Every structure is written in C-alpha cells, then in structure tokens.
Amino acid sequence: MSERHPEADPAATSGGLVSGPDGAEAERTETEERIFEAALRVFARKGRDGARMQEIADEAAINKAMLHYYFRSKDRLYAQVFHYVFHRFDRAFFEAVERAGEDSFAAALESFVDHYIDFIGHHLDVLKLMVNEFLDGGAVIRHEVTAMIATGQAPPQRFARLIARAVEAGEIAPVDPRHFLVTLVSGCLFPLIAFPMVSTLIPEAVDDYEGFLEARKKNLLDVLRRGIEPRSG
Amino acid sequence: MSERHPEADPAATSGGLVSGPDGAEAERTETEERIFEAALRVFARKGRDGARMQEIADEAAINKAMLHYYFRSKDRLYAQVFHYVFHRFDRAFFEAVERAGEDSFAAALESFVDHYIDFIGHHLDVLKLMVNEFLDGGAVIRHEVTAMIATGQAPPQRFARLIARAVEAGEIAPVDPRHFLVTLVSGCLFPLIAFPMVSTLIPEAVDDYEGFLEARKKNLLDVLRRGIEPRSG
DNA sequence: CGGTCTGTCAACCATTTGGTTAGATGCCAT
DNA sequence: ATGGCATCTAACCAAATGGTTGACAGACCG
Question: Which among B139, B145, B180 is the nearest to A200, CB-wise?
C-alpha cells in the first residue's frame, strides 16, 4: 500500500476533474477535457505567465491549435481553469466542514483534518495553482472571495463560527477562532506545498506518500486537540 | 504604529539584502544591487519562467542591457538570486534556532516563533521565491538541501534533535519531533503566503500588518505550547 | 452521392522576449 | 589635455511564443 509521491507519475494530482454528465455545464469533449487537465497541471507548476501554450498542448498530447479552438486564448483558458480550481478548493473546505458537523467539536476537528488533508493531498494541483495566485498578489482571489462571501455561505466564516460556539460552550479553551482556523489550515496545507523541503526531513514520505498523509493527520490532530483542551484548574 | 501590508508599497519585502562590506564577496555596485533586489521581487511574484527581463529592468529603473552586463543571462541571474535566497531562508531558521538556545524548551519555542515570523514576515520575497521553487518541483531545492545536509549543520535537523531531547527529558509530551517541527513551521509561514486569503478572514491584517504578525505569534504559541505540555496524570 | 458541419493539423504570422553590440558618457591617473 | 577603463544606452537581432489560417478527414444527412 505504499504509493510514491505523485511528482513521480504525472497526471496523478489533478484528480478526476469533471464529474459525470450532471447536466450543469455543456458536456465536454474528451479532447476538451484533456486540455483542461493538462492546463491545470502546467499552470499549477509554472504559474499563469510561466506556462507555455505549447507545453500544455504537449502535456495533453494534442495540437496547439486545439487550445485556441476550444478556449480562444491563454487568458480565457487560465480564467476557466482558475475559476474551476477556486471553487474546487472552496468546496473541499466546505465538504470537510459539512462532514465535520459531528456532536463534539473534537470529533468535528478530527473529521475536518481527515477529509481536508485527504482531498488536497490527492489534488495537489488545485492547491498549487491557488498558491501561485497568492504569490502573484492574489487580486483574482480577492475578487472571487468577495463574490463568495456575498453569498453569506462562505465556509471559512462558518467554520470560524463553529469554533466560536465551542469556545462559548466551554467545550474548548478560549482561542481566537479565526487564528485557530488559520493555524489549522496551515498545518494541513503547508506540508503539502513544501513537500520538496519536508521530504528531506522525512525521507519516508517520498516512498510512502499515503503513510505521510496519515502521519500528518495524526500528529497535527494530537497537537491541536491538546492545544485547545479546556483548563480545569 | 500601524504599517500596512507590504503589498501596498513595493520594495518593502525584500529587506536590506547585502549587509555592509564584510569583505566576503566582491563589493557590488549600487546598480548591481538594484538589479539584484528588483530581480528578487519580480522572481518572487512571477517565478523563474514568468519573470520578464524587461520587467526586472523597469523595476530596477535601469537599462535592460545592464542585466546582462552584470549577470550575463536570465538563468545566471536567477541562479544567483535563488542561491542567495536559499541561504537567507536557511540562515533565518538557523538564527531563530540559535537564539532559541534558552534554558527551557518553552522559552526556546517562544524565541523561535518570535524571530522566525519577524524575519520572514519582513522578507516575504525570500519566502515567496522559495515557494515558487516548491511549486515547480523543487529540484534545485533538493540539490541545495543535500549540499547543506552534507555539512552536518543542517538547522532543521538540529532543531528536531532539540525537540527530541526535550521529549526525552520529559519536558514536553512525547511528540514526533519532525512532525512537530513541520507543524510549527507551517503555522509560521503559511499565513504569510496565503495572506490574500487570510486577510479576507482577518481584514484588520491589511491595515495593521505588524499587529497581525504579533497576533500570529501569540495565537500560534498558545496552541502549540499547550499542545505539547506533558501530562501529569 | 454531394453537401456541410465538426474536429484536427501543419504551416504560417505578428509580437514579445532574451540577448548582443557599437557607440556614448564620465571618471581618473598620467 | 588625453588615453584608458568601467559604466551605461539605444538600436538591433534571432528565437520563442501566442495566436491564426486554409486545407483535410470523417461523420451525419438529404
């Protein structure tokens, strides 16, 4: 059961992108699909400006003209890919929180860490593209986030409220909900981004990626759970 | 005392790069210096391939030919900048650990978080360029790290041993030193990278960046210190 | 069978990009 | 002054890059 870190074989970190024909969007050609996934991969590692159309075409094993046939321009292609990624990123968080609607906060926390690390750990390109956008100033992100918050359903805010309630109920120590959330998410995501560095400290992670993910979950949970236990003194 | 997040004014996140004429390297022209810092800024946000020589020249407010006059090619310029950044990144960690040579582990931890967040928080470009390299696969990083580890002085390993000793001494709960270190560093660095996202959750961070850094230190330390307190029962 | 519509491709085009060069400018020792 | 040297610049060049086009192949339909 020891799978290597995805960097080894390509295409492994984009994950199944478009679920079946759920009628929402016009069905995509297989070619269109291939382009989209290849674009995600290349944009994720090279960034918007660093990515080359030819490289995307090569990665998708199709003619470069097809990129423009289906997506008109590099900007439009990037926009579509990023928009998709943002919502995937958002949804991952949302679902992790939803399933975390457990009875105790401790259980919710455990469920969140489990689902979040699982999803992002297997869709690394989604995270990478997101981070790429951070590095470039995140103008697009702020735009998308603003739109998201406007819906009143912004998952991070919801989770922060969940934490706040646990504090009020005395279920956990009085932490700042927003900062605790930031620390939590940091502990989930950063090790995945910084894998090239982390793996020099934890070499086994390269040959047993799944094991690494599980170890991260366990160790992060151990520290955080203890870190917010209410004081009975 | 409320300074805005560095994204606002340029040049603020590279920090003073080359310290005075300490004789180590041949002294640099003021122009050379300007190029170097501009290159760091542009590479940090656009990545190796995304960066344009013209953009670097513009940022440094000098003629593009000067880039080649002083650094021959884009590759060489990038190599020099990255090499510098890597060691700066490494040194920041090292110094944070050194100063953390306190009596108690708790004090050491506090000192580390304080210095590390301070330094990286004010040299964001160093971190950003590093992360850019992560996203692209980190081949260069692995190379540098291997060289670093060969010296036997690799700071991360040293800090991991420090943690291990604290565990053995019963000073802290029995955590996995390497994973605790990863969680610690994640909590320090990720919020700085993901600032565009974090600041939608913590809007004050934009107008009071220094305050944000202090809040991060405090909240991270609170959770981690409690998280590793030894159990007395 | 002829027409046409979609998908595909090789070749092509205009612009951008990394990199070069010939010559200016200023400084400093002779 | 003047010759030499480092620094700097505008103009230039070849290659790479985003994007286009015209032709071709096959499915579908009358």
Answer: B145
